[in-house]
Amino acid sequence: MNVEDTTEGTITYVPPGEGKSFWMAGGHMATFKVTSEDTGGAYTITEETWPPQVGPPPHIHHTQEETFYILQGEMEFITGGVTTRATAGSLVRIPKGVLRDYKNVGPEPARVLVLFAPGGFEGFFEEVGEPVAGSSAPPEGPPDVERLVAVAATYGCEIPPPSEG
Asked: What predicted TM-score, i.e. pTM, was given to this entire model?
């Protein structure tokens, strides 16, 4: 990231297509646009790309709220039994402590800006993801669920076991 000092403080500038990126399970990619280090811990912003029909397992952030701004594609969010479909230009905010389940329901990749407040959740991506290097491909095979659940817990994120049925 390029940082410039001004008389007002420090600004962060990340050009299009840049930022530290990580591959996650299912071909999901997260790129850091602003980290908690940049914001004194106030928030983190990632740009995430989700392949069609891909999303994380249902989970609860106990320490951060998440706000999603859909740049491209169509995402479906399920919170408290309510389903919300969000297309480009839509914003969805989910408070901390709420079980969330979401995925890209469109036929094309979805691009989403995600704001985590307070910051710090980028550490999860660094620990469980694989750094994107050049034209590297996403990891193949299923994720190590036990490790994913354990690492998520260290960042205040609970991934409940799948429900029976």
From this structure: 0.90
